[in-house]
Amino acid sequence: MGRQAQAAGAVRRGQTWHAMRHNSGVLIGGTIVLVTVVIAIFAPLLAPADPYVTNPAQALLPPGSPGHILGTCELGQDMASRLIYGSRLSLGIGFVAALLASTTGLLLGTVSGFFGGWLDAVIMRIMDIMLSFPYILLAIVIVAILGPGLVNTLMAVAVLGIPFYVRVVRAAVLSIKDQEYVQAARVIGCSNGRIIFRTIVPNVISPVITAFSIDVGWLILEAASLSFLGLGAQPPTAEWGAMLASSRQYFILAPHVALLPGICIFVLVLGCNLFGDGLRDALDPRLRSR
Prior knowledge:
The chain has 290 residues and is mainly alpha-helical. The chain has a domain at 89-273: MetI-like fold. Helices cover 75% and strands 0% of the residues. It is built from twelve helices and no strands. The protein has helices at residues 2-21, 24-41, 43-46, 79-115, 117-131, 135-146, 150-176, 180-187, 192-228, 240-247, 256-283, 285-288. α7 runs antiparallel to α9 and α10 packs antiparallel against α11. It is elongated and about 75 Å long. The two termini are 30 Å apart.
């Protein structure tokens, strides 16, 4: 039986990998995300100039100017360098916020679905209250309480993602906890902790991973929105949302200072969504069979 289970697992992994390699969403979205990650990691090597060095005499130069392939911003800072360094903050905020949200949501959703009763009712009513607020309004309230800044923006957008994960995990746990192999674990005397971590959690990781890959893009967009409103990263920080906010008044005179960070946000969020949708199709056998 052990060898049969291992063989079946190997077959499933092979089918998943084959589905991922032949899914255009995974390939296109994964390429976009991978390129952004590489740019973020090697930003000091790729950036042609210091993104924070100002030169008012060269302010708002158009793309293609000598020494500034993508032009300069209103302070004369090199746009290419600021966009490259901005990928670090935008991608980092989205990834860390999604990691915090998914970890917290996995814990709360598992506890809620597994134990049920009053604990389930309390957790889910709190999630319902959070979901009753418009996402951006709730984020503004949190940042207004904590104060504007990059760290507080990260915390705010992480809180926004928790209810989504709680609901996904809880639904998965409710469908799993009454399965025969879980009941068998109870019969042989396994503790609740062992059942949760050895039986329940491994079976709910797949939807969490899929949700995480999509959520990164959404949280990047939320963080950029807060920065655009002046509540996130503060100038002169090289963050795409903050760059949009500081350049909007120059849109008519020099549209590239607003268009370029906007395009970067659009492409990265699109890549995350494509990768997440493709990953969901690859991990779900029901969708693979269509």
